[in-house]
Amino acid sequence: MDCKTITLFLLLLSLPVNLQCTESPKWIRGGYWDSVSELPISEINSALFIHLMRAFATINSTTFNIFINSTYEQSFSNFTSTVKRKNPSVVTILSIRGGKQNSETFSSMINQSAYRKSFIKSSIEIARLHGFQGLDLSGVLPGQSTNMTNLGTLFDEWRNEITSEARNSGMSQLLLVMTSHHLSELESVSYPLDSMQRNLDWIHILAYDYYLPTRDKFTGAHAALYGPSTRLNTNNSITEWLNRGFQANKLVLGLPYHGYEWKLVNPNANGIGAPASGPGIHLDGSMGYKSIKAHIRDYGFGAASVYNDTYVVNFFTSGNNWINFDSVDAIRTKVLFAKQKGLLGYKVFQLANDDKWELSSAAGDEDLKKNKPRLLVIIPVTLATVILLLGIIVCFLQRIVFKKGGLPGAARKSVSKLRKRTATENIDRNAKNLQVFRFTTIKVATNDFSIENKLGEGGYGPVYKVLLTRFLV
Asked: Which domain of life is it from (predicted)?
């Protein structure tokens, strides 16, 4: 096999492997950290995430500029640099609260062009000032109080300004994302989906808080993945987004690191939909995953929650107390669901509620299963590349070494001695009948490697005909 054949073979060997390696779909692993969090920024395990959201900036009700509460301003400024110490590639995003206590201000802002301009300009300035690489609008619900047409206009203008600012500053464009309410087929008012799909990089779906003890007088799985079609659940919500024409690869699944505690009316009636009188010991019934685990441990040896794979949620009942939350198993199942649906990834709310990073690690472990085939591809790609380069180098050297005149001068003598020694060693071992010829003998026999004696050229150089009988001893 000559050099050209070897090179072609190696190229063909590496080609299909390289094609597989180029297919590396984007995947979001996001998490929220709130200003009121008990978790110090320095203790965030940012290595488990690709994007981290810092919440929340607010809207001034008079100027409609974005501002940060002076109490937390320093932590906003330090957020990006701090989380990048453990993960330099993590992308930080500034989250702006547009709902709840800011909903009236937000609705007023989007209805006036001048107000929208102030909001947009200040949001970009604040993000750049504090080193954030993106902006997130959180908490806006589709409803009669918010003009959905004007919300679409806001996204158009926001995206245009982000593009213009990046072009003028020479910096990378800020990401523009949104944290949205879940969708139900029963809702008559919807988001401006066309504008959102056109202008937003992705949307975080609030796939939780379907049922709340402060509002619903019956127990409900607040973050059920599946369930009867008549009940709210994540599968139904994602299906509704897709049915309305929204791209799956722009949806990021929200994962809750909290649960809720109901107070049962009758301890013996403790299934989903059982009568309840309101929240448990906490004001709104909400409990972080870490607190729930501690709460269950306090009941003593043998107390444990039960994982329900029909709803994909954990339940714990003791007396009149009924708690539902997401465990490690639920988180893994939901990450797998996001992959199967072709979603862009997941984001968790919120980081401080995790317990020794159990849930985040579980989500990451499930995510790594997706990357294992790619890791297996990287190894043969590297090997094929090395082999290809070695093959080319060997062929190149062979052509230099054996080109017509053979080895020049001292190099020729060194090779001759090496060959003689090697042949002698082989003779001593197992080739006693092998005859060794000196280089000078071969040179004479070929008439100094005359062109008349050349038969052709192969992978190891020129081939000559020679009659050596008169040189045999």
From this structure: Eukaryota
